[in-house]
Write a structure and sequence with these properties.
This protein has 236 residues and is α+β, with helices and mostly antiparallel strands. The protein is built from six helices and eight strands. It is extended. The two termini are 39 Å apart.
Amino acid sequence: DNPHASEERATAMAVGDASLTKFGIGQPVPRSEDPHLLRGQGRYTDDINRPGQAHAVFVRSRYAHGRIRRIDTSAARAMPGVLGVYTADDVKDFGTLKCMLPATNRDGTPMLQPAWHALASDRVLYVGDAVAFVVAETRVEARDAAEAVEVDIDPLPAIIDPKAAVKADAPQLYADVPGNVAADYHYGDTAKVDAAFEGAAHVVRLELVNNRVVVAAMEPRAAIGEYDSSTGKWTL
């Protein structure tokens, strides 16, 4: 809503300096949320603590790809404050996690959606893949017990280069996703783009490598759940 925005853009274009535009590099950006955050008046999930609240810590894979041979939770179950230790067998009736943004392939078919469970059962598919979780009376007790869970994983070949992952000899992550391609997505008007290049005075070809781009909050998505045994109701 800056009345001088057009003037700023014109000036920036004239001198070739993008930093002069509104919200350009180095420009001050007024922030309405700072006053209460800087005073410690923000409210986050970790600020909410209910009576008798338990804490959970996940046990995660250190391998990018591997076959799970054994998960021993006996030592963790016997530790102080532990209320439960859970593996894939305990949550198998929960079903699979759903894809929130299913895409359509360029040929009009739906993208492939392999079964994705809350906890890995036979194989881990990325570093950090959850294989178990511990619930305890305190966060420290949950963390200690999670470290006591013994996970034996037989490492399998892993690939981090997308170009290598689609080659014929690449390790296949899912039997129902041939070639490791779950979605072949196309956006835009190919004919118009081709025409624009055909009529361009100069065409530059270069390869760009982007890091993973994802919309992610600084605080992970979380919730506090509380059960009232007298009414049989949950408060989330």
